Amino acid sequence: MNSKYTGGDNIKTRIAYYDNLRVLAIFGIIAIHVFQLWHHGEKVNGMYIYMFSEIVRYAVPIFLMLSGALLLNRDIDLNNFLRHKLTRITYPFIFYLIIAFALSIFTDYEFSSNILSYNWYFWLIFGVYLSVPIINKFIQHASIREIEYFLVVFILAAIFYQFVLYYNIDNFFNLNFFAAPIGFLVLGYYLSVKDFKIDSRKLIALMLLVFVFATSMKMISTGAIMPKSFALNYEATQTAVLNSWVDVSIFVILQAGSLFVIFKNLNFTGFRKAVVSISNLSYGMYLINSIVMFYITPFFTALPRNGFEICIVIVLMSIFVFFVSWAIVWVLSKIPIVGKYCS
């Protein structure tokens, strides 16, 4: 069995690139939420906002890949695993849900529906944790070649799904929630143990090219396909390359996979205390960031937002929400009793 670190505060025993990836992923999720917030109300710039949001579509897949890297190929006691993991995500979910509804009373429930819509990831990861003991048995008894076979099927399913969307027959062949969570889970484990036997600098350069290529393809394809839908309702619909939330696009697989390999080979250990803090509090940051967005959005909407300026505003807002969310959850984590439920 491959022994892996699964949590805790001992910086010396942590796997640094896991923490670095988690920081990158939570920033990506917050940025996606900010992009979503802006593109809905932007008749002129909405399409371009959505195009630039493709840069951070790696976020949820990386979280799933980290779960695979940390949880698979371990000896799991079913009862202890489910009790620990499910309560670990459920208590903070309920905690922030109560806060959201309490705050919504003072805003005439103006943002309660948005809060709920952003919490879809809870239900996804809940289902993933239920499936981990089953997938874990496969990983424990599978050879690398068999795992690679599984990943080939996952990638082919992703490519097939893009054609299904293109021909508008996804109601008959909807592979989204079947393929994406499990596929990314196994991909994360595979990349965490795979030795590519290539010089790390060359591998990083190659993976950087893969990331740029995949991101460019998503941005170009989104811009080429989406204008018609924006002419009708200024909101993106599903396309052959873009699918909201958990994207099973081959390009997102390349995005997330290349970033995972890059961070694995970077050996970056700077700002460890801050990185570990954000990593530990990332789930709470995910749950609270939409509340933070609600209160600070009026200040950012007053800034210039013509053409490329709007993308700069979105980046600044994403950074601001990121640090404010971290600060709030950090303060909550220091409060007795409350701290154990905030992240």
TrEMBL record:
<dbReference type="InterPro" id="IPR002656">
    <property type="entry name" value="Acyl_transf_3_dom"/>
</dbReference>
<feature type="transmembrane region" description="Helical">
    <location>
        <begin position="307"/>
        <end position="332"/>
    </location>
</feature>
<feature type="transmembrane region" description="Helical">
    <location>
        <begin position="283"/>
        <end position="301"/>
    </location>
</feature>
<keyword id="KW-0012">Acyltransferase</keyword>
<feature type="transmembrane region" description="Helical">
    <location>
        <begin position="118"/>
        <end position="135"/>
    </location>
</feature>
<keyword id="KW-1003">Cell membrane</keyword>
<dbReference type="Pfam" id="PF01757">
    <property type="entry name" value="Acyl_transf_3"/>
</dbReference>
<feature type="transmembrane region" description="Helical">
    <location>
        <begin position="245"/>
        <end position="263"/>
    </location>
</feature>
<feature type="transmembrane region" description="Helical">
    <location>
        <begin position="147"/>
        <end position="167"/>
    </location>
</feature>
<dbReference type="GO" id="GO:0016413">
    <property type="term" value="F:O-acetyltransferase activity"/>
</dbReference>
<feature type="transmembrane region" description="Helical">
    <location>
        <begin position="21"/>
        <end position="38"/>
    </location>
</feature>
<keyword id="KW-1133">Transmembrane helix</keyword>
<feature type="domain" description="Acyltransferase 3">
    <location>
        <begin position="16"/>
        <end position="330"/>
    </location>
</feature>
<keyword id="KW-0808">Transferase</keyword>
<feature type="transmembrane region" description="Helical">
    <location>
        <begin position="203"/>
        <end position="225"/>
    </location>
</feature>
<keyword id="KW-0812">Transmembrane</keyword>
<dbReference type="GO" id="GO:0005886">
    <property type="term" value="C:plasma membrane"/>
</dbReference>
<keyword id="KW-0472">Membrane</keyword>
<dbReference type="GO" id="GO:0009246">
    <property type="term" value="P:enterobacterial common antigen biosynthetic process"/>
</dbReference>
<feature type="transmembrane region" description="Helical">
    <location>
        <begin position="173"/>
        <end position="191"/>
    </location>
</feature>
<protein>
    <submittedName>
        <fullName>Acyltransferase</fullName>
    </submittedName>
</protein>
<feature type="transmembrane region" description="Helical">
    <location>
        <begin position="58"/>
        <end position="76"/>
    </location>
</feature>
<feature type="transmembrane region" description="Helical">
    <location>
        <begin position="88"/>
        <end position="106"/>
    </location>
</feature>
